[in-house]
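Internal QA ticket QA-208
Title: Verify multi-chain structure generation after dependency bump
Assignee: T.L.

Test input:
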Amino acid sequence: MQASSILKPISEQLQLVDDRLREFSESSELPSLKDLLIHVFDSSGKLARPALTLLTAGFHPNDGEKVITMATAVEMLHVATLVHDDTVDESDTRRGRVTVSSSWGQHTAVLLGDYVFAASATYVCSTGNIRVIKRFSETIMDLSRGQMQETANSRDIKNGMDDYLERIYFKTASLFSTSGESGAILSGASEPIVQSLKTYSEKIGLAFQVVDDVLDITGTPQEIGKPVGSDLLNGVITLPTIYAIEDSGCRKKVRLFLEDPSNTELHSEIVDMIKHSDVGERSYKYADQLVEEAKLSLQALEDNDCKRSLLDLADFIISRNN
Amino acid sequence: MQASSILKPISEQLQLVDDRLREFSESSELPSLKDLLIHVFDSSGKLARPALTLLTAGFHPNDGEKVITMATAVEMLHVATLVHDDTVDESDTRRGRVTVSSSWGQHTAVLLGDYVFAASATYVCSTGNIRVIKRFSETIMDLSRGQMQETANSRDIKNGMDDYLERIYFKTASLFSTSGESGAILSGASEPIVQSLKTYSEKIGLAFQVVDDVLDITGTPQEIGKPVGSDLLNGVITLPTIYAIEDSGCRKKVRLFLEDPSNTELHSEIVDMIKHSDVGERSYKYADQLVEEAKLSLQALEDNDCKRSLLDLADFIISRNN
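Actual output:
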């Protein structure tokens, strides 16, 4: 299965979203701001979230306008988050391009992120739908809360599965959920359909983050675009580590490493231990289960191109390697 | 004239705003976030913007609920802006308290600011008024744009009055304008009244920033809580400098200083020159004119306690020394 076949039912609308993102980035009268916007939107990714908004709008006839606006807004919000995340993480590059914070300074990155956050909110406002606008603002709160919780609870292996699931909901699944829920709402779908698509979107959002966290250990640096085991290096406890420290030997090593994060030899040793254990398999199984729950929540929906794409998208999330 | 007499018609409502701000800061379940929120809202200022929202709502009978929510939101937005501004400026203290960025790190300050920005937007959403929600999002864009423009155009004395007025509109007057406009809208006032109060609020916002920029030169470090001439030191060209460099001797010195900002002796010399010139007087005259225009825009409004307070508030903005 390929991404292009999943996106086929919405390829024209996705192109319109791409056009609007370009129009937005070229619209600023302040030259320095324009350059920055073009830089961050040029390097934008696979438009996974806008695709979700467009696909979830496929279960009720609608003129597409509000949905395309919303799909543009969710990508803008995602980009704003990346700009601030790179500032917080002090990352030098993202997907092969320099980050705003490393090249233009943290200060510019803070203000640029604020600007794009606010701009995304004005797009959502123009849908005129209060429920969607409110959900969108709450999602911005969730995103920053997730990051803060990750920082606050780092280096502490006492925080287990509940803390992990809450964090990845705030950090990732909340925006997936809002992307899907808002597509359904703005298309005019009935409440049961909205709830099904919201549940689906939240579940694949959680699965997406679990896979991300497994790839952090099992991927190659080329595939994941960062050093292997970066999460542990930064003291962030994710699902693979939670599973790994069930073994008391590994738990001892992880504890030692978190007390002395400069011990890179120990870090490599732990990463190797996890790689050669069943942790990767168990983590994928967990993500698989989330994907199955996501697909199950679509059961009552009419069978159409968008539904088939959503089912394929759920599987694609598990099979990706970057 | 005293601030307390200006606030008399809205003292009860202002207390409710203060209560809601405290409730918000104490509501977070994440302990580290709660501590941060209590810190930034404890040090919050004079509630000038909420007061404006409450006073401009005094020209049409209303139950007060939406207006109080909005007044709470404008203060939250103001606080979020301060958190990010202190990060951008690398300030150690604000009004005698340590800043979040200096004490908890820039990273925490970025995320905390995002969280409070988003939280303020959810409060505005609960007014259910799309026009107000959209205006609020645009204001967040204006605020970050104003800061970016200030950075982009710093150290360049070619940017004159037009650039200055645009910058202070984005940076300060936009939020004043939105605070006043939204009070009027949410009270249910007619469109001509909304427009009068919006104009009033924008003008006093501009005057407020002009006075701030004059005090930066004419105030004592105790009054203004920062070194005298900080704007010039940071390369920010404000009204006093724009007036001062009409004199070719002063222009030469300013140009030299902007080329070598480490020359503190030259900085002191320029500040002294401006202090002993008519620049302060001329700048106040400019602010006075804005205040007169603000008061004039209220002419058609019925005479009541809120109108008298708005007239007094306009004068108070000129007379303040911190």
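Spot checks passed. The beta strands of chain A are 93-94, 97-98.
Status: verified.
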